[in-house]
Specification:
Rossmann fold; three-stranded mixed sheet; 36% helix
Length: 324
């Protein structure tokens, strides 16, 4: 692919979101013009942190009204852009209606954004924020992979609308993106598959399921102990850099696992305790799996999820990202 012209605007969906906020900052710091489609461009409260970053940068940000579920609403924001970052997708684990709250925004939103891409002749590259959840459904799945380690070749085959619906939403949305990409030859697709994203938000009001996990480790909900969950983690600022590189390196292609390290809930708790001492009631031990399984419904968790994740190592190969 030819190099992206940095004199042209770059569109970022979900610009007010946790990961997207850092991508926008990186683009603005590089002096680029960012087109930010948002639900309400007149909501100064939700945009003030992006505006503050823009004011201190060499770049410019412009807002456009758009909605993931409305076809064609990204056309205006995409005009003249060569590069699109599609990050907008819900990251929540507790929902009343998985189809409405997770699948539709992820799948229909991706289809709508890419339909706009197909109508916009200037676009040459799309960088899609997917997830390691589109690669590994449950930690037990790793047992079926060579050496117990997942690579970009694997796909999540175990999640459904009823089991791990968030992971399912990321899987169906990414698969749809690849299918749409294969039907044309003008624009290429680069996918970023991060593990659990941690680190500060550009706004103190940033929302992410990862914030909820860290909060629960310190608010007393887990003071008696934590399940033996293993997860991958990556710093949100490193993830933003990975997106930027995926957008502007001509040789970037395919899927890219972005994960700095594998850890456990208990290891995260120990890390937090080293920084904050006894200011918070951090858990200091791992709970037996049968206890977690029995108590799961009281915590809003499904026993199938406990059975397929607690006690199993979660491992990925992240070496591809080192060479893009």
């Amino acid at each position: 692919m030819k190099s992206i012209d940095k004199g042209k605007p770059v569109m970022v969906t979900g610009a007010t979101g946790y990961v997207a906020g850092w991508i926008v900052k990186r683009l603005l710091d590089e002096g680029l013009t960012v087109h930010a489609p948002v639900r309400n461009p007149k909501n100064s409260a939700s945009l003030k942190y992006l505006n503050a970053i823009a004011a201190q940068s060499k770049g410019t940000i412009k807002y456009f009204k758009a909605d993931l579920l409305v076809e064609g609403s990204y056309d205006e924001a995409m005009k003249d852009c060569e590069l699109i970052f599609h990050t907008a997708s819900p990251f929540i684990n507790t929902v009343k209606d998985p189809q409405r709250d997770l699948i539709d925004p992820a799948l229909i939103g991706t289809k709508n954004v890419l339909a706009s891409v197909n109508r916009t002749q200037s676009v040459h590259r799309v960088v899609l924020t997917s997830s390691c959840a589109a690669i590994i459904g449950d930690a037990v799945d790793c047992l079926t992979y060579p050496d117990g380690i997942a690579t970009e070749k694997q796909w999540n085959l175990s999640s459904t609308l009823d089991h791990q619906p968030y992971s399912y939403s990321k899987t169906v949305a990414e698969r749809a993106a690849w299918e749409i990409n294969k039907k044309q030859s003008r624009w290429d697709l680069v996918v970023i598959n991060p593990s659990l994203v941690i680190g500060p938000g550009i706004s103190p009001h940033s929302t992410s399921e990862s914030f909820n996990l860290i909060r629960q480790l310190g608010d007393g909900n887990m003071k008696m102990g934590v399940p033996e969950f293993y997860i991958g983690v990556v710093d949100v600022r490193d993830l933003a850099d990975a997106h930027f590189n995926a957008g502007f390196y001509p040789q970037a292609n395919g899927r890219h696992i972005i994960s700095a390290d594998e850890t456990s809930f208990l290891d995260l708790s120990v890390m937090l305790q080293k920084k904050y001492g006894n200011q918070y009631p951090f858990p200091k031990k791992t709970l037996p799996k049968f206890i977690v399984w029995l108590m799961a419904p009281l915590a809003g968790l499904k026993r199938k999820m406990i059975s397929r994740n607690v006690g199993y190592y979660w491992r990925v190969d992240h070496t591809k990202v080192l060479v893009i």
